[in-house]
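EI: anyone free to look at a 438-residue chain?
SC: sure, send it
EI:
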Amino acid sequence: MSLTDPMETPTVAVTAGGELNPAVAADHSEFPEPSRVSAWFITVYTVMTFAANLTMLGPMLFGLAYKIQLIDPDGKEASLGLVVGIGALFNIVVTPLAGVLSDRTRTRFGRRRPWIAAGIAICAAAGSTIALAPSVLLIGTAWVVYIIGLAAVLSALAPVLAGQIPKAQRGKVGALSGASTQLAGVAASVAGSLLTGNVLLMFVLPVGLLLVAFVVYIFVIPDRLPVKAVVREPLSRVFQQLIFDPRKHRDFALVWFGRFFFQVGLTFFSTYQLYFLLDRIGLTPETAGQRLALVGGIGIIVTTGFAIVGGILSDKVQRRKPFIYLASALAATGLSLMAFAPNVPVYAIATLFILAAAGLFGSVDLALASDLVPDRSEAGRWMSILNVAGYIPSAVAPVVAPMILLVGEGQNYTALYLTGALIATGAGLTAWRIRKAR
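SC: here you go
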């Protein structure tokens, strides 16, 4: 991927692609807002977000757990935690690095698109390997490669919200993106339960859908180069860009920690929900997948409603923090119910609380973060740094969770989900401390 100087362009505040012109913005205390985007732009971006999240959540919510229990049924909890945890550790480094590098990429194809294209190819190859792998070791190795591909895709998509969509539309687009994420989770469970007889298709189908969405994305979402000279920097400087001073950017740091706490709670739930249904409720993998899909299907209405209504209302009243408070409370309630769930109906009610929380938090938190990005001309850097707050729990929680599950006589899901509920309340506490947003 070559880095070349962009063609000369007249000096304007906002480029034709909706990117901020740093040469102009640098002379102002505040960056000018991008122009409003069309409904078609929003639709394609939402579909692309859905496809990218399906590619991520398909393996994370069902595929990996199903494949590992086929190979290692007796040690499945520890094996799954190890595979997911190691993959997440790589994600912590690769995702923000990809975001920073995409800010600096200069090709005729754009600066974000090459990363998406490369990520799709990597995920296709790694996903096929996972599906055919005969051992946990090979699954773990291929999952690390898969994570690298996901990082390239997601790091190139995240900057669009902060860099090309104006503040007045961010709540709406963030809501749709949040809803698409939850819909992707439901679709992942549906596809997983239907494809237990074809593990290869279980892993490659989401990547194929992402490729189709990307073809449309290319022709609709602008990816023009910013009006800024390319400064070649050593790799060490790129890594330095991934670090920021939380004292200087206090509010952004609080958003970061809020997302971290919230995602820890949700990761405890999502990583082990299949094994919860197998071990505590006593379902088979196929029946468990069907129940996951059924509950998730019902949850579409709840998730979409909370995400879209929350995002639109937060735009209308120009307040973000009250919605974060509510999302944190809903998550804690759902996880607490899950801790004592003896059957599928109680599990379903608890899951709906958690899905409502995830939908609401996902839309408003994204809008809040976009409002507080310190420098939108480097949106890739800042949004990737924020994404790390969601990826660290994926590394920490699966490693810690097996130890919590071993408390007492083992398989202690009560302790696991009560711990998650307590941690999730931290999102509301950090939002309360934010000063530059309401």
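EI: The chain is about 75% helix and 0% strand.
SC: 👍
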